[in-house]
Write a structure and sequence with these properties.
Residues 233-292 form the Beta-galactosidase galactose-binding domain. The strands form six sheets. Strands 16-3-17-22-19-20 form a six-stranded antiparallel sheet. It has 318 residues and is mainly beta. It has three helices and 23 strands.
Length: 318
């Protein structure tokens, strides 16, 4: 592979060799050129090899794309996910859960990427079972009560008073790139959701594709001032000041947990504290001179600052 590049947005794939594992946003898999187009030691070794066998001299090296570090920033405002639902497209009402691909949206083409939120009412606790593809956060009203995933499909629901709103936020973490499992890639909730083996019925289903039109609608929302920290899924908005001549950089999300970064409404990709990727490549061509809007969708808990680096950063994951 000469140039791995970047899986911008939601387009990263996944592997499944007995366990579903999403591919990171960076596809800089020890390629000859980095995702930012920089030369590597491997590149110079190959250049030396080709130069030794060619009858004519190699052309001069192209100049590298300039990089820079921008001032650190901190989000100014935030919106809990629950405040955002009114700015989404009309939800789907269904007796049973519907997976992303079968939602009656986008002219009958369903939902391809992103998140999907299921809401239904429950009037008792017990053992919840759901076939989730790929991972889900479970809430009673706005309180997180647990996580579901491919390998962990059961969760104990505590005793509830009266009837409560059960919410299941599912993330599509990427479809497999190869193997026979390609034909079985459905995302969201698959089949019935049960408590103590009794199917739940009556769902309101929100599609969170997070397209640019969605972020345009968010401009009319009443954002809350962000002063300290917030626990739960939320959007955070801030400003990246790129000066008069924007250049490439690498974003580092300090103490943030897991989510996505949007630059001027465009999806840069996923960040996740577990690694291996610790920075996100941000091309200078994505930035406007002067002020740029940066929005984070953080799934779990807010962090502190958003930093920029001259170089990418990765860590070893065992």
């Amino acid at each position: 592979m000469f140039h791995g590049g970047t899986n911008f947005g939601f387009i990263n794939g996944a592997t499944d060799l007995g366990k579903h594992e999403s591919i990171a946003t960076s596809y800089d898999y020890d390629a000859v050129l980095t995702e930012a187009g920089d030369y590597t030691e491997k590149y110079f070794k190959l250049r030396k090899l080709f130069g030794s066998v060619l009858a004519f001299p190699l052309p001069p090296l192209p100049k590298l794309t300039p990089k820079t570090v921008y001032p650190s920033m901190r989000p100014s405002f935030y919106l809990p996910l629950w405040d955002v639902l009114q700015y989404l497209n009309e939800p789907v009402i269904s007796d049973k859960p519907i997976n992303m691909e079968n939602l009656p949206i986008n002219s009958g083409n369903g939902q391809s990427y992103g998140f999907i939120l299921y809401e239904t009412a429950i009037c008792s606790g017990g053992e919840l079972h759901a076939d989730v593809q790929d991972t889900a956060q479970v809430f009673l009203n706005e309180t997180s009560i647990g996580i579901l995933g491919n390998a962990d499909q059961y969760l104990n629901i505590p005793k509830v008073r009266g009837c409560q709103r059960l919410r299941i936020l599912v993330e599509n973490q990427g479809r497999v790139n190869f193997s026979w499992k390609i034909q079985d890639q459905r995302k969201g909730l698959i089949g019935s959701v049960t408590i103590n083996n009794i199917p739940l019925e009556g769902y309101t289903i929100y599609s969170l594709e997070m397209k640019m039109s969605f972020f345009e609608r968010l401009h009319s929302a009443t954002w809350r001032p962000f002063r300290s920290s917030y626990l739960g899924p939320a959007f955070y908005i801030g400003t990246l000041r790129a000066g008069s001549s924007p250049k490439d950089t690498f974003l580092r999300l300090l103490n943030w947990n897991n989510g996505f970064v949007f630059i001027n409404g465009r999806n840069l990709g996923r960040y996740w504290y577990i690694g291996p990727q610790e920075t996100l490549y941000l091309p200078g061509t994505w930035l406007h001179p002067g002020e740029n809007e940066i929005i984070l969708f953080e799934k779990r808990k807010s962090g502190s600052y958003i930093l920029t680096n001259l170089n990418p950063s990765f860590k070893t994951v065992l």
